[in-house]
Amino acid sequence: MLLSQSGMALGQLTLSGSVAELAGADWRARQIDWELIPNGESSVNIGTLGISNMPASLSEISLRCAKLALARDVGGCVAGELTFRLDERPVQGRWDASFGTGGNASASVSADGSASGPPREAVSALQASLTLPLAGGEVSVEFETGTQPTLMARANGLRLDELLSQLPVALPAGLTALNGDVAFDLTATLGSKLRVNGSWTVGDLGFDSLDGSRAGAGLKLRGELTFESGEDKGMTFEASAVIEGGELLVDPAYVSFSELPDVELTVAGRRNSAGTTSIDRWQISDGDSVTVSGEARLAGEGTVELLTAQVDRFRLAEAYPRFLSAAGESFGLEEVAASGEILGGLRVENGALSHVSLIFETVDFISNQEHFGASRLRGFVDYSLAGDSADSNLSWDSLRYYTLLIGAADSRFFAGGRQVLLLDPLFLPVLDGGLQVDELALNDLGTDQVAMDFRGELKPVALDQITRALDWPVLNGTLGGTIPQVRLRNQVVEVGGNVVVDVFGGTVTMEQLRLERLFGVLPTLSANVQIQDIDLEQMTGAFSFGKIEGVLRGSVDGLRLLNWRPVAFDLDLHTDPDAGVRRRISQRAVDNLSSIGGGAAALGSTVLKIFDDFGYQQLGLTCVLRNNTCDMGGVGDAGNGYFLVRGSGIPRIDIKGFSRRVDWPQLVRRLQAATESGPASVE
User: Fold this and answer.
1) Whether the predicted pLDDT of 453 surpasses 80
2) Which helix (H) or strand (E) holds 588?
3) Is the pLDDT of residue 126 over 70?
4) What is the tens place of the pLDDT at every residue in 65-88?
5) Phi, psi angles (nearest 5°) of residue 654
C-alpha cells in the first residue's frame, strides 16, 4: 500500500486521505481518495480498479453517503450513491449499508439491505450486494470474498438493445438491429481462473440484417452456459439452448419454431487469446426427425473459417416442411410431399462449400401439383470443390416431369469443382422409346457461364402416347432421331442442328429450337417449324375433324410457347394445288372449317346433305398470333373475306372466312369442339 497523505480537521471531525495504490492477490486499486465526516456527507473515490480475469475495466468509482453514521459498535451509510465507468460507459446505482466491527473481522454492504458482524481488528472477508437499474431492467450482484471469491449476478427484464448501447459490445457483423428481453442467473468464481455458470432466457428476440438475408422475430430461447478462463487469457465454454417459438430466416431457409417441437442446440468449445473460437462439437436436434452435429472454427471478427456438419438423421416427411420448404420455394418447388431419409455430411471452408456427400435412402418426392417428382430415389452423391470427389451413383424407379414419366434407370457420374460429368451412357425410358444419353457434361457450374454439352439419340417414341401424356391433341407417328448437340447457357437450352419428327406420313422439322427455364417457373420454348408432305387423311383421322384428303405443307415461324401454351407464331398451312394427289373434303370437315373461319360454305344445307364429300382445288389457313388474338387468312381474298377452301368440280363448294381477327382462346375452344364432337350428320 502506498499512502500519499491523510488529514484530520478539528471542530466537526473530518477524516480525509489518499492512497496511491492498494492491491490483493487478484485485484488492484489506484488513486484512492476519501473524506469521512461522522454524521455528515462522506465519499470514497477510486481512480481505477482491476480484477483478475475480468475483461472489462472499472474506473472513476465513487461511493458517496449523504450521511455517514458512526456509533460505538455499528455504523452505516444512508442514501448512498455509486457511480463508475465500465469500459468508459457510465453506470449509476444506489446503496445503503450498515457495518460492525469486532473480533470476527467481517463487514458487509448491501443495497437496500443491512448487515452486521462482530468486529475485528482487520478485515479479511467481505460480503457485498448491489442492485442496479440497467437497460430497462434490474441487475442484482452479490459478492463475497474468502478462500474463493464468488460473484453472483441475477438480471431480469433487460432490454437487449438498450444493454448493447450501454456496453462496449458491437452488434454482430451485418446486423442492423437486435432486441429482446434478457434474464440470467449466473455465478462467477474468481481466482487464478474465472469460472462462470448458470442459466439464461431470451424472450421476444428479434434481429435483422442489412441485406435482409437474416432475420428473427419473436424468438423464445432458454438455456444454460458454463465458461472457464485459461491461463493464456483464453477460455473454454459449454452452452445449451432450447428454441421454444418464434420465426427465423437464414436465406434461403425459413423456420417457424412455433409450429415445431422444441429444437435443442448444444455447443462446446474454446476461445484463444488471439480471438479465434474453436467449436469442438455442436448439435441441433428436434427430437424425432433431425439430428445434425459437427464442429466449427470462427475468426475473431465472426467469419466462418471452418464448419462441418454430419447429418445423422434427416427424415424428409417431417424435416422438409419444417426446415426446407422455404428454400425449396425459392427454387420453384411448391406443395412438396417427400418421404425417405437423407444422411451424409458437408464441409464449409472460409465461407464456401468445399465438400458434401449425401446418401439417399428410398426417397419419394412430388411437387408443384405433381409436375415434378421421383419415386424410390436412392444412391450416393459426392462433391468436392477441389475436384477430388468419389464417383457418384443414383438410381430411381421413376421420374416425373409434368405428366411425362421417365422409367427406372441407373446413373453413374462425377461431380467435382465446377463440373458434372456422366461416366457411363445412360438410357432414360420414356413410354415405348426413350432417350439415350451418350455424352453429358456440365461445366462452369456456379458461374454466369454455365455450359452444358449433350449428345444422344431419341429412340422412336409413339406420338400418340406422348401427346396423350402431355394432354395435347393426339398425334399419330413417331418421334425420334439423333440429337447432334445441345448446349446450355444461362438457363437457355439451344439445340444445334434440326430436330426432325416423322408424323402422318410427312416430316416436321424444328429449327433453332430454344428452351428457357426448362425446370423452372414458366418454361419457354421457341423455334421455327417447317411442315412437309403431311398426309391430311391420316391427320384428320386422328382428330375426328372430318375427313380431308390431300397433302399439307407450311410453316410456323416465330413459335413461342410459355408454360407449354402458344403465345406467338406466324402460321401458314396449305395444300399444294399442283400435287398429283386426290383432294376431297367431307361434309363434317366443311362444317368445322366454316365454324373456324366464322363463315359458311357457299352451298346451302339442302344441297350439302346430298353429298358425302366434295372436291377442292386448295385449302389453307394463316394465323398471326399476338396478344391472344389471331389475325386470320386463307388461300386467297374473297371480297370481304378470304377463301379457306377453293372448291373444284361438281358440286363446287367454296368455304369462306369473314372473321379477320379472332380471339385465340375462343379459336382453341372451336378447334377442341370440332375434334371432340361426334360424327357429323346432314339433315
Assistant:
1) yes
2) helix 587-597
3) no
4) 887 776 655 566 777 787 888 777
5) -115, 135
Angle between helical axes of 664-676 and 587-597 (0-180°, round to 10) = 170
- Exposure on the CB side of residue 34, measured as CA atoms within 13 A: 17
Q: How far apart are CA 183 and CA 165, in angstroms?
A: 17
Q: Which three cell numbers stand for residue 160?
A: 437487449
Question: What is each CA distance from 460 to 14, 143, 212, 500, in whole angstroms?
Answer: 111, 86, 51, 11
Distance CA 404, CA 519 (A): 13
**Which residue has 472454427 as its cell numbers?**
297
**Rg of the chain, C-alpha, whole Å:** 42
pLDDT per position as a tens digit, 593-618: 777 766 555 455 555 667 778 889 99
Q: Distance between CA 57 and CA 395 in Å, rounded?
A: 63
More confident residue, 343 or 58: 343
> By CB neighbour count within 10 A (0-12 exposed, 13-18 middle, 19+ buried), where does 11 fall?
exposed
User: How buried is 327 (Cβ within 10 angstroms: 0-12 exposed, 13-18 middle, 19+ buried)?
Assistant: middle
H or E segment to which residue 454 belongs: strand 451-462
Residue 299 phi, psi dihedral angles, 5° rounding: -75, 170
Length of the chain: 683
For residues 327 and 333, the answer to whether their CB atoms sit within 8 Å is no
269 pLDDT more than 80: yes
H/E stretch holding 669: helix 664-676
Q: Taking a C-beta distance cutoff of 8 angstroms, is the pair 173, 301 a contact?
A: yes
Q: 3-class secondary structure for 387-444?
A: CCCCCEEEEECEEEECCEEECCEEEEEEEECCEEEECCCEEEEECCEEEEEEEEEEEC
Q: Beta strands of 232-289 (E only): which ranges?
A: 235-250, 253-256, 263-271, 277-285
Compute the 3-state secondary structure of the chain and give helix, strand, coil in percent, each to the nearest 5: 10, 60, 30
Residue 639 CB burial class (10 angstroms; 0-12, 13-18, ≥19): exposed
SS3 for 328? helix
The span from the CA of 77 to the CA of 410, in Å, is: 85
Of 331-345, 516-530, 535-549, the range with the lowest mean pLDDT is: 535-549
How many Å separate Cα 128 from the centre of its chain? 51
Which cell numbers hold the place of 224?
444454460
Q: Which of 97, 60, 93 is nearest to 78 (CA)?
A: 97
Per-residue pLDDT tens digits for 499-535:
777 778 888 888 888 988 876 778 899 999 999 999 8
Q: Could you tell me if residue 463 is left (phi over 0), alpha (psi between -120 and 50 degrees) or otherwise beta? A: alpha
Q: Which residues of 409-440 are buried (b: 16+ CB within 10 A; e: fewer)?
A: bebebbbbbbebebeeebbbbbbebbbbbeeb
Distance CA 382, CA 390 (A): 6
Residue 536 region, left (φ>0) first, then alpha (ψ -120 to 50), else beta? alpha
Quote the CA–CA distance of 264 and 266 in Å, as a whole number: 7
- Residue 482, Cα to own-chain centre: how many angstroms? 39
User: How far apart are the C-alpha atoms of 618 and 640, rounded to whole Å?
Assistant: 19
Based on the number of CB atoms within 10 Å of its own CB, is 583 exposed (0-12), middle (13-18) or buried (19 or more)?
A: buried
Q: What's the rounded Cα separation, in Å, for the pair 64 and 73?
A: 21
Contact between 143 and 125 (Cβ < 8 Å): no
Amino acid at 446: G
Cell numbers for 104: 470476527
- Which grid coordinates are listed for 162? 438498450
